[in-house]
Every structure is written in structure tokens, then in C-alpha cells.
């Protein structure tokens, strides 16, 4: 891989699960194992033609594509289930069909990991928003997990939009910021990041570099 592609700000991957590793000083840390790439560049956008600089990455082989998808990927060898675009602050010399792997990451890199959180279904306010619930004494036998008041009475006389209430929990796009890379193994397409990443096992993740630990 060229040094120019190594400057790519991110990569697509799949969550494997969580485990523990020992650092050199003997400290044990919880890490998320991610299958990072390999990805293929499926489109190159330039400021002169598209108004901004970006690279589109394809990940995970697909068995079948519809006509628009097949037409979009006609210049690329292979079919991909997932396509994601990464904007670039400065252009990177890249060609369609070029492969990118976990070698763009190094131990000490700081990354943001984006994925779809686990869906929890319909949940009450105590579970969904961590409300304390009502009093457990003095006859309040049914207030333990109640949300409490929803708003004022006469004015405004309605429940305001955005009020924290019971409802659908999870299954939404979540970004966990500031995770540090513990290990990057391009040969195994393996990336270990400190802490928890969003989503269930085998779910799609977008890993973006934000800096390097001091």
C-alpha cells in the first residue's frame, strides 16, 4: 500500500466481539475486535467535478446486485453489499479498484466508531432515559418505574416535542468517539480498539481516524 492511501481517514469493518488484552505494563484493558476491511475504492470524487474531494469504499462481497448498483460498480471487479463515502480535506491520489486494509491504522491512533446500536424494542422511561422512578414508600406501590409529570398544566397545555418518555430504544446510528487503537494486524484484517463499539456482533462499522495519542 502506498503512503498516499495510508492517509485515508477511515475504513469499513465488521464487529467481531469483545475481549481483553494485556498491555506491556501488565494493565488489562477491554477491547473490541473489528474485522477492518479489506475495502475497495469504488468511486473517486474531486472538487473540480463534484464540488468536494471524497473516496467511496466498497466492503463485503454481495451475491447479487440490482441494475443501478451493477451500473455504478461496472468499473470495479467484484460486487459489494456496503458502500460508504469518506470526505477528504486534501485530495489523495487513488484509483478505482484499489484495495485498502487495516494497515492505515497504527497503535495509538484515536478513532471514532460509527454503527447501528442494538435494538431494545419499546422501553419505559427508567430503562430508556435512566429516570430514578417515584417513591417506594408511603403507599406509592405503583410509582416505582413511573416517568412522573410530562409538563405544565395551563401553559403550554401540551407535552413539548422532545420530552423524554417511553418509546423505541436503540436501533439508531451511534458514534463512539475517542477510542484508541491497541493493535492493527493487516494480515488478519484485525483491529483492536480500547472500549466498546456500538452495534451487535457482525454489524457494520465505520472507523474514522481523528488523531494520535500524545
β-strand amount? 35-45%
**What is the count of DSSP helices, taking H or I runs of 4+ residues?**
4
Distance between the termini: 26 Å
What does the main sheet amount to?
A: 6 strands, antiparallel, barrel
Rough outline: globular
Rg (C-alpha, Å)? 23 Å
Quaternary? single chain
Fold and architecture overview:
The chain has a 6-stranded antiparallel barrel. Strands 5-4-3-6 form a 4-stranded antiparallel sheet. Strands 8-9 form a two-stranded antiparallel ribbon. The chain has helices spanning 3-6, 47-50, 67-72, 125-129, and strands spanning 10-22, 28-36, 39-45, 54-61, 80-87, 99-100, 109-116, 121-123, 167-169, 173-185, 190-194, 204-212. It is globular. A hairpin with a 5-residue loop joins strand 1 (10-22) and strand 2 (28-36). The two termini are 26 Å apart. Helix content is 9%, strand content 41%. The mean pLDDT is 88. The protein is mainly β and 214 residues long.
Amino acid at each position: 500500500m502506498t503512503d498516499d492511501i495510508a492517509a485515508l481517514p477511515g475504513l469499513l469493518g465488521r464487529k467481531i466481539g469483545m475481549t481483553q488484552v494485556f498491555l506491556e505494563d501488565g494493565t488489562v484493558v477491554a477491547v473490541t475486535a473489528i474485522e477492518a476491511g479489506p475495502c475497495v475504492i469504488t468511486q473517486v470524487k474531486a472538487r473540480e467535478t463534484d464540488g468536494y474531494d471524497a473516496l467511496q469504499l466498497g466492503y463485503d462481497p454481495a451475491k447479487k446486485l440490482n441494475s443501478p448498483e451493477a451500473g455504478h460498480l461496472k468499473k470495479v471487479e467484484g460486487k459489494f453489499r456496503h458502500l460508504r463515502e469518506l470526505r477528504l480535506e486534501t485530495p489523495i491520489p487513488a484509483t478505482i479498484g484499489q484495495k485498502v486494509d487495516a494497515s492505515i491504522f497504527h497503535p495509538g491512533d484515536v478513532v471514532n466508531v460509527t454503527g447501528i446500536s442494538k435494538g431494545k424494542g419499546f422501553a419505559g422511561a427508567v430503562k430508556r432515559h435512566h429516570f430514578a422512578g417515584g417513591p417506594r414508600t408511603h403507599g406509592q406501590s405503583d410509582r416505582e418505574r413511573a416517568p412522573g409529570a410530562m409538563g405544565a398544566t395551563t401553559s403550554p397545555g401540551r407535552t413539548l416535542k422532545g420530552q423524554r418518555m417511553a418509546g423505541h430504544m436503540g436501533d439508531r446510528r451511534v458514534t463512539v468517539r475517542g477510542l484508541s487503537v491497541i493493535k492493527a494486524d493487516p494480515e488478519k484484517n484485525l483491529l483492536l480498539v480500547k472500549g466498546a463499539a456500538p452495534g451487535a456482533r457482525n454489524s457494520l462499522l465505520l472507523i474514522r481516524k481523528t488523531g494520535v495519542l500524545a
